[in-house]
């Protein structure tokens, strides 16, 4: 099964964008009832994470803390000037996995999937691969 791509346009240098609904829509489109959903960001200055989405202050705190830990200006050697974005991406990661059961992402009550932009604003690609689960007869 091939991967689908969604595009996410970010509005600032550093922002977390909730992409949960777009990912869930791909699960519904593909009609995968049980399996695994892999969300992958093919960029070196943007990542993806799962965290609380009920209170927007949580992701704001996460992004602010990353910005404090890894300041935009520092003693970096990378000539392009966006070393901080590369470091934050390494800390957050480029992929997450979510179980799919009965056609639904099995996220926790408060969990959402976020694209984390560290070098925006830009339009980012997010790749979504769905791996169907095996049937009970095949196990």
Automatic annotation (TrEMBL):
Pfam family, one: YjbQ
InterPro entries assigned: UPF0047_YjbQ-like, YjbQ-like_sf
Coiled-coil regions, chain positions: none
PROSITE patterns: UPF0047 (PS01314)
Top-level lineage group: Bacteria
Transmembrane segments: none
Family classification: Belongs to the UPF0047 family.
Protein name from the UniProt record: Secondary thiamine-phosphate synthase enzyme
Species of origin: Desulfacinum hydrothermale DSM 13146
Upper lineage: Bacteria, Pseudomonadati, Thermodesulfobacteriota, Syntrophobacteria, Syntrophobacterales
């Amino acid at each position: 099964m091939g991967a689908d791509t969604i595009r996410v346009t970010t509005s600032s240098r550093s922002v977390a964008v909730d992409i949960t609904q777009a990912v869930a829509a791909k699960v519904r489109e593909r009609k995968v009832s049980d399996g695994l959903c892999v969300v992958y960001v093919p960029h070196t200055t943007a990542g993806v994470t799962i965290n609380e989405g009920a209170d927007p202050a949580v992701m704001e705190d996460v992004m602010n803390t990353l910005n404090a830990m890894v300041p935009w200006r520092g003693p970096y050697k990378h000539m392009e000037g966006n070393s901080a974005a590369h470091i934050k991406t390494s800390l957050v990661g480029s992929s997450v996995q979510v179980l799919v059961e009965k056609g639904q992402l099995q996220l926790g009550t408060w969990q959402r999937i976020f694209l984390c932009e560290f070098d925006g604003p830009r339009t980012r690609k997010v790749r979504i691969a769905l791996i169907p689960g095996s049937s009970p007869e095949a196990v």
